[in-house]
C-alpha cells in the first residue's frame, strides 16, 4: 500500500502520510518502524528529543537489509532541538543524529521550535530537554536567521535534502522568507479539528510551503501527559460529528480525521502499534469527504492548543 505525495519546493516528493515517532517507546521502536515499513509506510518523522533515533534507525536498517526497501525509498525526517540553535552547533548535532539513525542524509530536517536555548553538550545530557545543566530555562542569543543560515549549510553539504520549520507563526515565516537563501520546504504544526489554524495553513500553502499536521487526533495524543485540557475535552473519536461521518463512509473515526487533512493537501504523521490500525491510518486517500463534511469538521474549532510549553510548566509564551 502506498500513498500520494506532496511535491516540495526543494523538488523532492514527501509522502502525504507518514509515521510519527513522538512517544514511541525505545523497547518497541525498532519493531514498530520495521513493521510500519512492511505495511507500506515510507515517511518517518523523528526528533532528537524523542530519544529513540537509534532504535528507529535499527528498524530502518533491518528493513533495508531484508530487501523490503532501499534507502532512497524512504523519507526520513528529524528536527533541530532548541539547545542547538547557535550557528556552530547545528551541523555537529545533525551529524550526530544522522549517525544515530545510521544514514548519510535526512530527507527533511526541521527547526523544532522557534526558540533558542542555552547549549548543553550531548555528552552531558542526551536526549536534550528544555532546561540547562542547572535545570533552568535559559535562552541563547541565537537569532532565527543565524540558525537558518546554518540549516542552509546542511543542504549545501548534502546532509539534508530539504529543510523546514515547526511551530512557527505566520509572522515568523514571513520574516524567515525575507532572508532565506533556501526557502523552508515544510511547516509542521499542531493541527486537528479543535485547532484548525486556518489562516496559517492558507498562508503557508500560498507560499508554496507544505504543511504537516501533528497530533491529528487532538486530545488523544496528550492524555498520558496528564494535561488538564486533554482530559476535559471530548475525544474526537467519540464526537458525534466525526462518528456520523465515519459510519456514513464505513470508515473509522481516525481515518475520517486523517482524510480531513490529507484531502486539503496537509500531510499527516499518525502512529500505531496495532497492525490493523497501522494499515487503516495509511489508507486515508482512497475515499473523499463531501465539502459539507469538511466544513462540519472544521466548525469544531476551539482554538485549543495542547502542545504548548506553558502547559508543561515552562514559561515560553511562543503561541
Automatic annotation (TrEMBL):
Q: Where is this site: Lowers pKa of active site Tyr?
A: 79
- Listed binding positions for substrate are 112
Catalytic activity, per the record? xylitol + NAD(+) = D-xylose + NADH + H(+); xylitol + NADP(+) = D-xylose + NADPH + H(+)
List the SUPFAM superfamilies.
NAD(P)-linked oxidoreductase
Which GO terms are recorded in the biological process aspect for this UniProt protein? D-xylose catabolic process
According to UniProt, this protein's pathway is: Carbohydrate metabolism; D-xylose degradation
According to its UniProt entry, the function of this protein is described as: Catalyzes the initial reaction in the xylose utilization pathway by reducing D-xylose into xylitol. Xylose is a major component of hemicelluloses such as xylan. Most fungi utilize D-xylose via three enzymatic reactions, xylose reductase (XR), xylitol dehydrogenase (XDH), and xylulokinase, to form xylulose 5-phosphate, which enters pentose phosphate pathway.
> Which PANTHER family is this protein grouped with?
ALDO/KETO REDUCTASE
| Family affiliation | Belongs to the aldo/keto reductase family.
Protein's recorded name = D-xylose reductase [NAD(P)H]
Native organism: Penicilliopsis zonata CBS 506.65
